[in-house]
Design goal:
Elements (H helix, E strand, L loop, with lengths): L2 E7 L2 E7 L1 H14 L3 H14 L6 H15 L1
Antiparallel strand pairs: 1-2
Length: 72
Amino acid sequence: PPVKRSLTIAGHQTSISLEPLFWDMLKAAAAREGLAIAALVARIDAERIASPTPPGLASAIRVWLVGRMTDQ
């Protein structure tokens, strides 16, 4: 089942529910990029908001992570 975690993004607290696999992938991606998880999520959030029809944040994170897997 999804695990809910709280992060501070752009100065405000938010909760995100992701499956443990996606939390593990997010942690690994943040380490590869030399960022804190919150900083990487903030970057993903900025990309999400810039899209014409922004998805939910959890969905945007999942899509971003899967996209990075296929790029490797």
